## 1
Amino acid sequence: MHEDPPQTVKPTRAGAEAQPPAPRADVWPDEAHLDALAADLSALGARLRQDDPAGDLAHLRRIAAAGRACTLIGVGATALGWLPLAVIGLALGRFARWTMIGHHVGHRGYDRVGGPAGKGFGEGARRLIDWFDWLVPAAWKHEHNVLHHYRLNEARDPDLVEANLDWLRRKPWPVAAKVAVVAFFSMTWRWSYYAPNTLAELHRPPTAPGEDPAERGVATWDPRRPAGRALWLQSLLPYGLVHVLLFPALFLPLGVNVAVGALVASALAELITNLHTFLVIVPNHVGRDLWRFDQPARGKRDFLIRQVLGSANYRTGGSVNDFLHGFLNYQIEHHLWPDLPMRAYARAQPEVAALCAQHGVPYVQESVWRRLVKTVRVMVGVDAMRRAPVASAAQA
């Protein structure tokens, strides 16, 4: 689905500073080394933005085609009564449309290479064509592109898992019971968490000083409120009716049994899509080896450093591997430069890792399964994230 990225050139910045120590995830790095890393990352970002590989747009089209092919395979298998293949095909199609198409186009990653414009993508009547999901694209762009990316791991980050699950962390329940709660949410989270939470953020007034972070992400389901009406009218009812009623009804000419099979396939695909997206999205910024920040970032230097120290990559490289991770295995590079095409992250990843090693700054990269374990341990209160020194937020 994408060619191997061209060989990268090793960083050439001549560091005059003393050789940095080996990175340690449990110690805040030396500020001088962070300054040097931020300067090199800034230069790398400027170079990446000047690149205009002709293959970036073609790669997006191949990813989109692969996602549609998965959906078509799912539809065909549904008609033939091949339930396992139907579920896998439908689930992968839904997964691809969010994690790779809606996500990266919505970040305007393809505006500069002649691709679909991020502004207006999936909004209005184009929602049915561009990206039809539980999530309302305008709400997703506000909650994710603006608040999450530019408030990463701060109290105002609406996706700060440790804060959002503080209520569960504090419960005096057995760990097994807490894990069961996490498992339930992982099977439903696109409609039980993301759809209402993104709409609540879109409709909420500016955060009041001193607001309890635990109350920040409370989703509204009340149809008397603007966010509640939007949730039911723009999210739950449209998506539910299409996939629960319309999709099975299309198979009625083939018989009632086939239509019932279509309903079962669609429901199971929804379950699998929730689990798959939870697996590759949620652990990206959670773990006892990642950092939280008690003060807002100040300046570009602070922003760049926080994306590295507050994010984790999964295993990178390989067409199938990257596709199944939704290109979210390049999370550090994506957070450094969210408006770049997917293949740009594959090109940048070796250089970012080398720069971090050069300056003695941790670059966290593990399998998605190891990251999931570390995430669940934070969710249930066994572990806690590291808290950055407040003084670091004052760096310009």
## 2
Amino acid sequence: MIKWLNSVLLILNAGIAFAQAPDSDNDGVPDSEDVCPRVKGTKANKGCPDAAAGTKTTDYFAKDDFTTILDVICKSELAKYRHPQVPAQQLEGVVTTLPQTGVNKQFPVYYSTDGKGSFIAMLILTNQLSEFNKTVEFVHQQLLINSSSCLSYKLFRPVPTASGDTTFMAFNQNDEGSLMQIKVYKHKVSANENYLILGVEAVPRRPQPVVKVADPALCNELQKIMEASSDGFKNVRANPKKNSISGLDDYETSLPGLGLETKKLRVEDWYDVLEMKENKIITYDASRFVENKEKAEALFNQYVAKLESCGTLKDRQVAQTKNLITLSYSARVNNRAKEVSLKLMDLGEGYVISVHVTDKYAKLN
């Protein structure tokens, strides 16, 4: 009996071992969950080396040194660190006094600029081209654990390019800050002199100028909607139906639809800070669903251009998150303040473009 039981356990154990998920770096975190599948890490850090241990890294640069360099790039202060005694080198850049890089910390950090606000810092990692994959993995894990405000979104994924470079993308937390492009690449100076370089490029966000496109019909429709909002859209709403999400009413309306697919009047809760109480107000909402990203962005930009031509709209403000762009305008109609907003929302399965008109003082009655 005991012999039979041992045989069964042996078979079961073999089956369990056979069914184990792949774990390339043998750190106890399966590849399917391991953010750094080729480098041994900890379960607490999703398979990457412990963040605290990153400060002691000595392969190509220390984590703290990398944070310092990134912060200097974000603040556009590289020129302050220009080395006073060392001329421009073979990388066609200016050497800095920032912490040096490389296994033996033998390489200085360089930078160059295009004179228009864009500049790139060049961190030499090694002169051994055979270490390309190793440097890519090293930079990847350093980005994942770095605390610089430049990389607050932490959207890092190695993306090989046709030339063999590997590019990482990141954005400054401030939506108006620089676009950060990070890449590891091979640089050949001569037949006998080659380097692997980490390039960190900061490109200022330059908003595209909006070319106004006059659309009198749309502006007239918008004016009519804003005028109707002053009395809570009393004479243009019908057939109230409960909104399954808010629990409040949505109304059908005879108002124009601004060229979008659907339109409705929506009841919302609004807290009046002057009266210190909550009121119910009603807002206009017209929207269109677009599956294709390019078409959605093109249509959104068309509406921006048209709304910019409407003389009543002032004080343009832009708010942007990962999935939503909102342009808000203020307007005064019949001596009443209105808010008009244009939104582009990424639903994951497509995009919604919508125009809202709100009068915060038009209470529902």
